[in-house]
Amino acid sequence: MNFGNTMNSTFADMNKMMDSEMNMDMSGMKMSAAEKAHCDSLMTMCNTIKAQMDAMKSTYNSDMETWHTETAAYQDWKKKAQEDKMADADFAAELANTWTPKLTEWNEKVAGWNEALTGMSAACTTTCDALMHAMPMDHM
Question: Does residue 1 have a pLDDT over 60?
Fold first, then answer.
């Protein structure tokens, strides 16, 4: 599945962006209490996004184990059906009732992951941009 590569690449870009913004030393910056609170809330958002990334990666890894198991089961079923010369109608029925729904479920799952990944990436960019602009150089 290509989603894993997309996820890892996107997460690498997001981590690079967040690490750059989150590693700023704010201790020497002159900020009002409201400005500091705003920066703190943005840092909290970055940490929330990182937790969402970890959760997605964990879910993906777990689900991929299931994907590999189901793929092997499908291959075994297909081979057995060919070796046993399963009737076309029986083959079509089992394909339609068992394997096609599983593939549909996986396609929907990947679409959901893509949507969540796009949302996380957008939130990361927005948060990092806001954090960068919340700490202008004239506060130093």
Answer: no
DSSP for 116-140 reads: HHHHHHHHHHHHHHHHHHHS-GGG-
Instruction: Give the chain's end-to-end CA distance (angstroms, integer).
Output: 47
What is the per-residue pLDDT for 98? 95
**Helices (H) then strands (E): counts for the chain:** 4, 0
Helical packing angle, 100-134 and 3-22, nearest 10°: 20
The residues, ordered by sequence, that sit 6+ positions from 78 with a Cβ below 8 Å of its Cβ are none
Full-model pTM: 0.84
| CA–CA separation, 96 and 98 (whole Å) | 6
The dihedral built from the CA positions of residue 78, 84, 86 and 87, taken in this order, carries a sign that is positive
Average pLDDT estimate for 21-47 = 84
**In the chain, which ranges are E strands?**
none
Work out the average pLDDT over 53-79.
Answer: 96
Token representation of residue 6 = 């997309």
User: Helix, strand or coil for residue 23?
Assistant: coil
**From its phi and psi, is residue 32 left (phi > 0), alpha (psi between -120 and 50) or beta?**
beta
